[in-house]
Amino acid sequence: MDMQLTCENVSLGYEGRVITKNLNFSVSKGDYLCIVGENGSGKSTLIKTLLQLKAPFSGKIKFGDDFSQREIGYLPQQTVVQRDFPASAMEIVLSGCLSRSGLRPFYNRKEKVLAHKNMKKLGICSLKRKCYRSLSGGQQQRVLLARALCATQKMLLLDEPVTGLDPKASAEMYELVARINREDGITIIMVSHDIGAAVKYASHILHLGQEPLFFGKKEDYLKSDLYRAFVSPSGGYEDE
User: How far apart are CA 24 and CA 26, in angstroms?
Assistant: First the structure.
């Protein structure tokens, strides 16, 4: 499989202090990697570092020969301000094409077709003219996922995409992401506080702590003492 991204001896920091040291892992085309760990272990910081929004304290992040950071689609955690954004669903989705439109002050036909295709894939074509802030939480997340798909056909980074959603909308979001990975071959890197969903859908697990604790296939993680401690009420770990 083609290697898309590799972290070599990366240390992550927050507010001037190191929170994770000597992080080593790699992601191949078509992988579904879930990042789990305790509160403050650096999960969201890692996502921002992979997007080059933050620099690592040390180490290197390398991209494959046929892949670049610009080809990553990103679904961040939503804020209250973002949920109240006054634009149509179609305008939000189309904005995912900005990285390829450059200084051109309009979207071309190819980009509009791509936006419609991704809205259809996620079952939200009927929402295209509706104001984004009038949508339910689950509908908003589908719009943002369609936006991220307009930015990439290679890799999606998702930072706790079901935060604030009800159980039904959460389950639907997980299924959509799994289908995108399975049917379109898009690599998934997802931060999740839901260990049950992580081990259900992921092909690989990265468990962060003060020291990197585990990286490998899901099947090996399920056999580890770390997993048993993490899901045990008396194991000393808590989900975020």
Answer: 7
**What secondary structure does DSSP assign to 128-164, as a single string?**
TTSBGGGS-HHHHHHHHHHHHHHH-SSEEEEESTTTT
- The angle, 0 to 180 degrees and rounded to 10, between the axes of the packed helices 137-151 and 167-184 is 20
Asked if 90 contacts 146 with a C-beta cutoff of 8 angstroms, the reply is: no
Under 8 Å between Cβ of 190 and 176: no
pLDDT of residue 239: 42
What dihedral do alpha carbons 30, 36, 40, 43 form, nearest 10°?
A: 0
88 pLDDT more than 50: yes
Q: What is the distance between the alpha carbons of residues 189 and 159, in angstroms, rounded to a whole number?
A: 9
Among the residue ranges 43-57, 73-87, 140-154, the one predicted with the least confidence is 73-87
SS3 annotation, 45-83: HHHHHHCCCCCCCEEEEEECCCCCHHHEEEECCCCHHHH
How far apart, in whole angstroms, are the C-alpha atoms of residue 175 and residue 150?
19
3-state helix, strand, coil in the chain (%, to 5): 40, 25, 35
